[in-house]
Amino acid sequence: LNRVTDRMCELSMFRGNAREVADQIQPFVDAGANVIEVIDVMPLVLDPADAQAGVGRQIEGCAHIQKRNPG
User: Fold this and answer.
1) Alpha helix (H) ranges present in the chain?
2) Measured between alpha carbons, how far is 37 from 24 in angstroms, rounded to an integer?
3) Among 6, 23, 28, 46, which residue's CB has the most CB atoms within a 10 Å radius?
């Protein structure tokens, strides 16, 4: 684990609000990706009451992606 650099961690996931994450995913869709899995990992570190909002963020992010890529 001590060999994992900060840069490797930065490249392993997207960060931002739902729209910002959708913006970061869009180039993969443009390149032909047709299966997109959006997982909000923030609930893993939040209190259970706050963590429930994670599902809403995932749905919002997926909605942004779908709106840009109908069909």
Assistant:
1) 6-11, 18-30, 48-51, 53-68
2) 13
3) 23
